[in-house]
Amino acid sequence: MLRALRQLVQAWWATLTGRLRGQPRHPDWNPAFEAVVRFLLLDWIETSSWDFPRLRAAADARPYPKKWVRKVKLTTAQLGGVPAVRFVARGGAKRGATVLFFHGGSYIFGSALTSHAELLARLASETGVEVVGLDYRLAPEDVYPAQLDDALAAFDALLDEGVPASSIVVGGDSAGGNLAVALGLRHGDPTAERRGARLCVVGGGGQLEVRAQRLVTLPVALARPRALCERTSSRALASRYASPICRSASLRVV
């Protein structure tokens, strides 16, 4: 908490002093966006040497907003043997649709119970449908395709509960968006009963990555994905379901 506050103050101070000198980081950025980019860069740099358990603990301990979380009923559960969080509006969930959502976080951190709880709670509250956030296994302890296997198990568990595939909306942001697409590709292959699910991918940090390309250097931006790729088998990376980040990093995987 104190570390995040210090970084926020540093980010705003650098933003404001730079603009007073007539030197914004980018002419198209407004002050708030620039401060956010600076904050994220500071966080990346300071945590680049942390091990994954420490990184996840710090991410989970952040003071995430809870405005929408307070408006829904939140229940932890197991879905196909995978930890999940179910979000339902206080008045109950409408029938006819269920959202299965995969959180982002580079496949190495993030959680439906912490980092993405507010997003999922708002989605459940404003749509009136049940939203299920999946806490799939994380890398590098569990390398790809463990995450996709968990997504498949959760989807099939919803089918076993009697939810028709055509009533399931599969979604995700960032890494979770890749997982949602991969799930759609996998489910288009094997059996007819798995087909028909709808797909919704949220870009997440896509716009930020484009706007921040002059500020965030490639070695920093790929520091953690690189660690993931180096521990992933070449066979898994050859899969058409895998994220393209490993190939873009020009890594030789052994």
Structural write-up:
With 254 residues, this protein is α/β, with parallel strands linked by helices. It folds into 2 domains: 1-47; 69-202, 3-Layer(aba) Sandwich (Rossmann fold). The protein has helices at 2-20, 31-47, 52-60, 117-127, 146-160, 175-187, 206-211, 218-221, 223-230, 234-237, 245-248, and strands at 72-79, 82-89, 98-102, 130-134, 168-173, 198-202. Strands 1-2-4-3-5-6 form a 6-stranded mixed β-sheet. Helix 1 (2-20) crosses helix 2 (31-47) and helix 5 packs across helix 6. The radius of gyration is 19 Å and the shape is globular. The N and C termini lie far apart (39 Å). Mean pLDDT is 79; it is low at 203-226 and 244-254.
Indicate the radius of gyration in whole angstroms: 19 Å
**What is the strand arrangement across the widest sheet?**
1-2-4-3-5-6
In percent, how helical is the residue content?
40-55%
CATH topology type of the largest domain: Rossmann fold
What's the story with the biggest beta sheet? 6 strands, mixed
Q: What's the number of helices?
A: 11
H/E series: HHHEEEHEHEHEHHHHH
Q: What is the CATH H-level superfamily of the largest domain?
A: Alpha/Beta hydrolase fold, catalytic domain
Number of DSSP strand runs: 6
Shape: globular
Which structural category do the helix and sheet elements fall into?
A: alpha/beta
The CATH architecture of the largest domain can be named as 3-Layer(aba) Sandwich
Distance between the termini: 39 Å
Mean pLDDT: 79
Low-confidence stretches: 203-226, 244-254
> Class of the largest domain in CATH?
Alpha Beta
How many domains, in number, for the residues?
A: 2
Strand content: 5-15%
